[in-house]
Amino acid sequence: MAESTTILDTATFAFLDIETTGGSSTSYRITEIGVRFWRGGQAVGEWQTLINPQTRISPFIESLTGINNALVADAPVFAEVADEFRRQLGDAIFVAHNARFDYGFIKSEFRRLGQLFSARVLCTVKLSRKLYPEFRRHNMDALIARHGLSPVQRHRAMGDVDAMWQFFGHALADKGRDCVGQTIATLLQRPSIPSHLPPDILEEIPPRPGVYRFYGENDVLLYVGKSTNLLQRVAAHFSGDHNSSRGVRMSASLRRVEWTETAGELGALLLELKQIKGLQPLFNRRSRAAKRLLSIELVADRRGYLQARLARDIDPSRLGDYYGLFRSKRDGERALQGIAGKNDLCPRLLGLEAGEAGPCFQRSLGRCKGACNGEEDVVRYNLRMQIAFHNLRLATWPWAGAVGVVERSKDGERTDILVIYNWVHVATVHRQEDLDGLALAGAVHFDLDSYRLVVKALMGPADQRKPVIELPIRGLPDVLMP
């Protein structure tokens, strides 16, 4: 029996449509789901429900779909129908018009529940393009008009399902079962797992926080990433709805996957940064280590006016004396120009204009209040400088020595104690007794991205801070600037 006939005779097709509060699955939510099941040439059931999106429906979406806030007020939230949705679909082929949209929203809803969702996906837009390549447009309205399909209630889930259903029936009658079946088989051929990986690779990866690494031929490191759910994130890389050229090239090169679990997101973020900068994977574009960091110092001139200068040699032990960290001189000067423009500060005192005597050029334009030639009171100017730079001031390490930042997994099965000193992550242990006698010899390098992460974790809003324990560790490391 031909492969095409096998698919049409034995597979169940779930014709599915959703309505949503907007166009992005990361920002908007589902308001309605409709599914009709087809098997062996006939309908075998249907399922539909309104969904409370737990957010407001805009007037535009209400006018488009007819679904308003009152209509969904008493409807179940997605979490309440998720299990039933899985049961209804089973192993059916997920059929949708512009399936990337519907499939992406369904996956996002399950992702919010900490669950992985995957299915074989058939897009009827792609099916129409394959079967009717002579036509340019393949949106639903074009299909209805072109093939003489019966009118439906557009932009409601079961209405759009009915339109897909009619198109599918028309295509079978017009092109024949063999042609349609073979076309479907071709569209479904793309594997969900890269060919060089074990087919059961996703069964091994845990749904926990951590860092994953993709390796290519000769064990070349291709990519390092992190997630609060390793299984979900790695599966997303393999998903058929990722079609960037970069993703395709990486998938084709992939030979092996490794991962390291962590107890929480901070540990995963810090480990990801360390491995990207230390191992420099081929496909990571961000977070490369800066060759040299610069900052800004405020130093009084001979008249007592504070002037700003770029500092190339930063002392990590007195970070509170510096303002901002920059990867290049250009970035630092751009920050100074922004501060000058917003606060009418003298560009000469900010090191942006040469000269020592007389008014600066911006003074003649009314954008400097005269500190350059002594017209502005020195105390007033210095106060304005300090206020302008306040938000850029770096945080001084507030503890006498190293601290342990405690992260525990949601299920309580794993604990990580991230040992941090002077905003640098220097070690990770898993039990408090492992801290006894821990010696941190040698040197570690200060990192801008890690600094930002650690400051947020330790000095952010009180209700978001991680638990911290001060550590009596012998031999604290030297912290070096890049």
* Poorly predicted regions: none
* Basic shape: elongated
Mean pLDDT: 88
Output the CATH topology of the largest domain: Nucleotidyltransferase, domain 5
Helix content: 25-40%
Explain what this protein looks like in three dimensions.
A hairpin with a 2-residue loop joins strand 13 and strand 14 (424-429). The chain has 482 residues and is of the alpha+beta class. The model has no long low-confidence stretch (mean pLDDT 88). 33% of the residues are buried. The N and C termini lie far apart (66 Å). The protein has a five-stranded mixed β-sheet with strand order 3-2-1-4-5, sandwiched between helices. Strands 14-13-12-16 form a four-stranded antiparallel β-sheet. It has a three-stranded antiparallel β-sheet with strand order 7-6-8. The chain has helices at 3-10, 59-65, 69-72, 78-89, 99-112, 124-131, 140-147, 157-175, 177-187, 201-204, 230-238, 245-253, 265-279, 329-343, 361-364, 378-389, 448-459; strands at 12-20, 30-39, 42-50, 93-96, 121-123, 210-215, 221-227, 256-261, 294-300, 306-311, 323-326, 403-408, 415-421, 424-429, 443-445, 468-470, 478-480. 35% of the residues lie in helices and 21% in strands. It folds into four domains: 3-187, Ribonuclease H-like superfamily/Ribonuclease H (Nucleotidyltransferase, domain 5, 2-Layer Sandwich); 201-279, 3-Layer(aba) Sandwich (GIY-YIG endonuclease), CATH 3.40.1440.10; 294-392, no CATH class; 403-480, no CATH class.
